[in-house]
## 1
Amino acid sequence: MCGIVGIFLKNQSLEPELGTMLAGMLGTMCDRGPDSAGFAIYGAGDAEHVKLTLRADSPDVNFSALANEVERAIGAPVTVDVHATHAVFKLPSASEQAARAAIAEAGAGVKIVGAGTRMEVYKEVGRPDAVAKRFDLAHMAGSHGIAHSRMATESAVTTNGAHPFSTGRDQCLVHNGSLSNHNGLRRELERKGIHFETENDTEVAAGYITWRMGEGASLGEALEQSLQDLDGFYTFVVGTEDGFGVLRDPIACKPAVMAETDDYVAFGSEYRALAGLPGIDKARVWEPEPAKVYFWERR
Amino acid sequence: MRVIDLEVTSLRDLNQMLHDLGEGANETHFRVINPRGRHAIAAGLDAPVTVEIDGNAGYYCAGMNKRANVIVNGSAGVGVAENMMSGLVHVKGDASSSAGATGCGGLLVIDGNAAARCGISSRGINIVVKGSVGHMSAFMAQAGALVVLGDTGDALGDSIYETRLFVRGNVKSLGSDCIEKPLRDEHRQQLGELLEAAGLNGQLDPSEFRRYGSARNLYHFHMDNLEAY
């Protein structure tokens, strides 16, 4: 089944509320996917710095000690923001490769799960409301965010199999459905240089969009092209550094409902996910059409 | 009229209370507030009562309805009035996919649009959609009627049996074994009655509609196909 939600703010004054809004939306989707949950949030950032989201295998990892090692290796300061098993290291963009090498060398059972100017990615096994609480999503700020509650079908219930999937800078994707041509497409994309961490079908969709955007496509164009190349059931919600997109397969197999006000655009697998949003009674609420690309970008 | 607030009363208590209404119950009009997209609101009713839902309902609203009038002052999620037996379900906004699915009787009126698979496998329900319907509507529909004032998506009436389809707007494409048929007087009369029941008396001329139905090639046994069985 799975549940997906997303919100893209048009009114900047709501940015401090983004985490609270997204956590509320994700919490209502526990019934649709109790296995694992995750979210990506697009917060503060600047072009001179990169934010690396690190995920530890165990909650005992000493992130500040790791940050000290990275600082020594790159000779520049690293800002650390720890959220349970995850931490965001913010460091000069020019030092990214050196920092990645230092993190890999340190061992410590830490993996880089997302990178970008503004994106942070968190995911974990467990009930979605508990996962949101563990990472303190309610206190995160940002311009847009997407989240997922998973009922696993195509691969195991592991943190690696949880959404969102990020395969490119500031790019991530959540998915409700299952793809049928992901193995063949994964092989093709690997030949084109896209790296995959899991056997999961959704990661292939994320990698596909990353590849298309790397070839120069806009988010809207990449989604349009995915209609031709991805086979299966899907409703996708995609985030980029300044954009937010939605796409349903041509059969509209998986549910979707959207709401728009002057302040935000919101997506939910069900209306229940949107019912708690401010001003929802006055919002334009509609069901996105099958095989039609919807996307919004910050101007 | 009794008001039930779903932020105070549980959905289960609401539905149980509606199920417990006996013949000749004193209370016959209920207003449900704060539905907030909850599923199965006013499902399984079997009493001549009116239930108004103020706001957007979730999945299977008024499912299996018998005799009751259920009015949604908002939009409805997947499967509104699915398997309805009799009575009236009126959605003032839009309906998601599979509206009126497998319905055996009664009337479903949708003021806005209905998404994919509207009236799928219908077995006698009448459905009037004032907006448009999505793809695969009336798929394998067996009896009853589907009236669409707007347009339809792809594959209207795919593998249809004997449901009558009336469309005023454009049909994007017809499904397998679904064809246009002449609109005769008996159909104009039936359509006039359905439009009147949907509150559109005299506003539309039934002659503006086109009729579609089964070519009856798919579900009849053909001696020539014997080898295939």
## 2
Amino acid sequence: MSLIPGSDSITQIISLLSYVFFIVLIFYGQRIQMYVMIREVENSLHKLKHIKEEGRKNAIDAIKEIGKPSVDPSARVDRYLEYFTIGPQGMDPAGIVNKLDHVLDVRDERLKEEVKLMAPSSDEVQVNNLENTLEAAMALNFIYKVVRHYYIQGKKTLSLYVIMQLQMILPMVMKEADAYSNALKAFAYGQPIGDGAGPLIAGKLMHGYETRKLPKDCVMATVPLEGRTALIIKATGPGGNVGKPGDAVEAVIEENEGKIGLLIMIDAGLKLEGEIVGEVSEGIGAAIGGPGVDAYKIEEKLTKYKIRNYAVIVKEDIGDAVSPMRKEINDSVDKVIERVKAVIQERTKEGDKVIIVGVGNSIGVGQ
Amino acid sequence: MRIKNMAQNQTQSTSANKKISTYLTMIVLIVMALAITALFIAAYTYMTALTVEDQITSGVFAGIGLIALVLSVFLLFQSKRQTAQIKIEVPKVMTTIECTNKGCNTKTVREFQRGDYVYKDLDIPCPKCGGKQMITAIYKEVKEKEKTYNV
């Protein structure tokens, strides 16, 4: 009996094998698909491991070079990379912002102290830069561990859906990991990053004017602008530092007894695919990221004194935000200043006081 | 204890990797064997072809065999190539220095040096007017063109 009438034996064997192969695909197709996905995840995981290890090495090299420690900092760096922060209990949400604020302060203090111990010869700017470098390495370590967790879990359970979810988000995860690996070098060298667009603009507005310190890790300058008095705030630079603009704005509003005509916040904003890097956009609200503590504090004061707040953002993606500043973002500085001036002219009267906050990381940006 | 567990996990993952590798490699090898057989049949049919139909059949076998062979070879070497591709690129960062004298528009662009920061006043005087110089920008230039989608 032949499977294909009139054909020879080799063709029949081929046909038979094809049928077998087809039947195998019907029953084991999904499993094969899963193995192909696991393979893809595995490749990305290898890449993540490489990036993570490179990040750790870069951080240790930077500490050795800048901090000149007497003992090898590797063990301490490894311990640092494993640090975690437990957020406050949210069962009774009343007062949770202050609790979170406290937890973040303790974390920041602890990490800075650790860096000082690791790099005793570093000054304040270098401590901030090294802290940022280690935080980038910490982020890479965390990404690697989470991906590895789901990869191993997927393989242990042989669940297509665990692996599928991981495989689906992997391009975004890899993009973020690449961004952090670029950020490591930028932080170690003290280069401005994309997130520094706000401080860069504020720095340009306040340059040449006397500055004073504000809580916490922020500076302010009083600058005459379009016939108004502009109170320009930014995180203290050039060290890697985002400060606490919430506390700074709160202090300035209270100092002026709420007599503020307008608050303008300038920040780097995440762009959507298809939008152009460095594009300037205007809106309303507290333009500030992070865990939300600063936004909350600013919104509280604005509501109390009925102060209007506007936001100007420079568009960029997550990769641009944490890697060395792109030329397009740097070129948007003058466009943003023009926008800010236009807003001040249109929305305030001469003699009014206006607060302008440059939100973001001040690494590589002085004042 | 934790380190021990982690080490165990890593060992498990390595042995499982090998298992999956073998499984996938087996499938790829079967496809490859089928492809080679198909190519042989194609060659045999072509050489012994008496009619146009036989020639078409040999063509079909050759096509299927070639596609399957290329795909299996591609799959086999894909992982190796991907591992080799891992490299972290360090972008070139530039520093722009400008003279602070309003009349003098001297602008110098050089590679970033450690210690540079935007709005830093430099000790080196302007080569043109002898005035003070300041760092006005630090940026990286992205050379690759982003893909446009015309939507």
